[in-house]
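The following record pairs a protein chain with its ligand, heme C.
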Amino acid sequence: MRYFFIIYALLAVLVVSIGGFRGEKFKDTPIRIFPDMDEQDRIDAQELSPFFADNNGARLPVENTVPQGLVQADLADENAKQFTNDNSYYHTGMFDEKVFGTGLPVSDLALDEANLEAFIKRGKVVFDSNCAACHGVSGNGKGVVASYGVPGVFNLIDSTLPDGGMFDVIANGRGNMAAFGYQIDLKDRWAVIAYIRSLQYARKAPLEQVKAAYEAAQ
Ligand code: HEC
């Protein structure tokens, strides 16, 4: 019983010392063993800043300027919508919400003979800036990031995924690959698939076919 009272008293002291003084404000510099990023050279949202004449930390963009990279989303434009509830093949790469389809949604993309080349070239721009660091400029999975040890980067030349499956990996990510749905809009996702197909074809095209083009380019 004696021990019980001792333990009880100790517990009471412990509870009071841990819980009792919380919320008390103090002005001394706190002891920080690991300061981490407690203090940063920045202005928090809504914070005052004596740097500006009006003491307002939050600033409006300078008049008559447009922030670099800001493209006003045109909501009437189908391609400006990154995410919708539309379950069509164009938006999901799937038929009936479960089967990955293959082929480009030609009519949604308004593709024809005249603009196809520009479309594939657009795919190259998107691929080179977003994918080549991992998958390699030729799509062979030997990009610079892979050479630093990111495991399992896929060789896209060997990919057997249907177009819709590729669309899904690009939009939603898989394994070590992040989702690109936020960065790459609908039309560009299809453009990059078209470009990957052209990379695959370039590797598998019969020699006679490429020989003439190769020699012509010399
Ligand atoms: C950070 C590196 C990285 C980047 C950037 C990246 N990928 Fe990937 N990708 C991977 C990895 C890793 C995998 C294998 C994922 C897994 O574990 O299944 C993969 C898988 C894929 C696959 C699946 C291939 C198959 O047959 O299963 C496709 C398609 C693909 N990536 C396309 C792209 C495209 C298009 C881009 C650019 C928009 C891109 N990736 C950007 C790392 C990357």
